[in-house]
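User: Assemble these into one structure.

Assistant: Restating your components, then the assembled model:
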Amino acid sequence: MSVVVGGDGAGKSTLLRALVGLVRLSSGIARRPSKREIGYVPATAGLYVDLTVDENLAFSGRAYGVVGSALAKRSTELLERIGLAEARTRLGGQLSGGMRRKLAVGIGLLHRPALLVLDEPTTGVDPVSRAELWRLVSAAAADGTAVVATTTYVGEAHRASTVMLLEQGRSIATGSPSDIIAAVPGKLGVVRSTSQPEGLSWRWGTTWRVWAPCDDLPEGAEPRQPEFEDAVIIAALADEQKV
Amino acid sequence: MAMLAQVRSLTMRFGALTAVDSVDLSVNSGEVVGLLGANGAGKTTLIRLLLGLLRPWSGEALLFGALPSMSTRRRLGYVPQTLGLYDDMTVQENWTFTTAAFGSARACMPAGISGSRKELVGTLPLGLQRRVAFAVAFSHKPDLLVLDEPTSGVGPLSRARLWQDIRESAEHGAGALVTTHNMEEAEQCDRLVVMVGGRVAAEGTVAEVIGSRTVVQVTCDDWRRAFAVLDAEGLVVQAQGDVLRVPGSPKQVEALLARHDLRGAVATVPANLEEAFVSVASGQSRR
């Protein structure tokens, strides 16, 4: 499972669209399985609001050649998993936001793709539905599906084996979460004060975190082992300094 | 510490649905309170009651010791999820309009956004739009901030900068009520209130909300098969790379793995905030 972390406008959706072949590359290459082996769930869609749950699955099934008893069996299995077995005749548009996202991912998984590509599957989804969604996605990964997902929640990067931090269309760090922490240059410290310390600093709760890329930490700062969230902010700060 | 917002036995019904059910809540001066809840838990209704946009069915919502009114509104800074800016007006026009409405026309536009004063709000990147929405909502130096998903969709650095603004206001004596689905954001609050089905199901500091909750952590050579085994048992198993975390008892998990000839390290570890929240929201017991 690979997760791409970035804010709005960082280029996450374009990266995924380039990966699945929906936009032409200006340069470089994108290697991917054939279209039939990809399950792609865009950020804002993934299902038809004016089709029922069953019709949505049947439509996608037809497109990918999953029909008849294979469709019936796979649909039942997926709907039981995502808790929609009782809602087969409901319209997509009548489902709650969390349910809609789960169904969209379910539709993406219908034809057992080799590569599942999810654009912000959990944005705006509450933590309870989010846990269920990730359970569904991890189950697919455990079953051998390669997963690429984007997110704006830094905490979700922990779920991945590989993380990419994206900022203004550029990758500013890649690796496992522990690789990214280990690659943090300089020193990180905590300052307990209400006034902003000198140097590069940001708020954390009632304290400040201060990062010294080359020199020593300012006086009064307690050194601290960076956590993943610190590493992400430092990568963004380092990138900003460069630009 | 002055009590800025106080909600007592607040109840709101819509037909058969009790959206907010005997809720007590307070926000004090200098304090950042996080309001957590699944969708439909009653957070938005609670905020609408507090802002005076809805009349309570029973109980009361007091702002600065009085019922919500135009004069309490003057002391309030509200940033809705949709930001509440005019997309087809420039940053300067949005600023001028809001400061005029709040009678704070002499306020000074913060340096972080004044560079974009001539740009149409709708053309700015979302992170900057949020900074503008914050600046506008903070321009009349409100005593109470109500922020609905304040950093949704913004990158980590912009998020840290928005929190800098929130903290600065709190240090000047304002209080803040923040709703969020983002657990890193929730961890920055002084106190959390967790709503489930219209009621307050847990509250306190992050450590208090987590309490003694634990999860079972499984490190196994074959994480994929271990995941499938735990998942098939109906457990809400979560993968963090190749480490699995699952609610339940270590003995049960060990027995399950042994039954499928899976070997691995099983340990009981403290739950994180997200796991504690899911446990509270799905009504599981503390242990």
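Chain B has eleven helices and 13 strands.
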